[in-house]
Specification:
The protein is of the alpha+beta class. It has 2 domains: about 15-85, Winged helix-like DNA-binding domain superfamily/Winged helix DNA-binding domain (Arc Repressor Mutant, subunit A); about 90-155, no CATH class. About 35% of the residues lie in helices and about 20% in strands. It is built from 6 helices and 6 strands, in the order ααααββααββββ. The chain has helices spanning about 15-20, 25-35, 40-45, 50-65, 85-90, 90-105, and strands spanning about 65-75, 75-85, 115-120, 125, 145-150, 155. The strands form 2 sheets. It has a 4-stranded antiparallel beta sheet, covered by helices on one side. A two-stranded antiparallel sheet has the order 1-2. The longest helix is centred in the middle third of the chain and has 14 residues, at about 90-105. It is globular, with a radius of gyration of 17 Å. InterPro entries: HTH_HxlR (IPR002577), WH-like_DNA-bd_sf (IPR036388), WH_DNA-bd_sf (IPR036390). GO terms for molecular function: DNA binding. Pfam families: HxlR (PF01638).
């Protein structure tokens, strides 16, 4: 498959956005960051991604302002954690839209395998990506849980960007 074009200067904002998050690995890395992954090993373990591919995606997401590096010390060695920026957190409705579309149009063969968006503010499952379908409040990473039927515990609280 040939490499795609550079869409960063396109007039269309959809094309410019896809220039940053159009790669499936980028969205999966962001999904894991929303789920609380911060360290290289956490991303690698959750995604089963090759080190060189993950390194490139993390570097690109940092360069594009969706993640930021934060150093930490591990066994005397300085390493980086990758934290969501406000721009990265703002992609939550996009990730939710993909979740909802996938549940509707690409359901798992086993009907018991499902994923839902739970608004912690009202405790209800939302059928919408950006606002709670039950109470109308905005869905923010710090007030959303993803309910995954295949996981224990089923509810996974999300994390957003650190306050600026």
């Amino acid at each position: 498959m040939p490499l795609r074009s550079d869409w960063s200067a396109e007039l269309c904002p959809i094309a410019r956005t896809l220039d940053v998050v159009g790669d499936p690995w980028a969205l999966l890395v962001l999904r894991q960051a929303l789920s609380g992954a911060r360290r290289f090993e956490e991303f690698r373990s959750a995604l089963g991604i090759a080190d060189n591919v993950l390194s490139r995606r993390l570097r690109t997401l940092v360069e594009q302002g969706l993640l930021e590096r934060s150093p930490y010390t591990d066994s005397g060695r300085t390493r980086d954690e990758y934290l969501l920026t406000p721009a990265g957190s703002d992609l939550l409705p996009v990730v939710h839209a993909l979740l909802l579309w996938g549940e509707k149009h690409r359901p798992h063969d086993d009907p018991a395998v499902r994923m839902a968006i739970v608004h912690r503010g009202c405790g209800q499952v939302s059928r919408y990506a950006e606002v709670c379908s039950e109470c109308g409040e905005e869905l923010r990473p710090d007030d959303v849980t993803w309910r995954k039927s295949w996981r224990e515990p089923q509810d996974l609280p999300l994390v957003g960007a650190r306050p600026q």
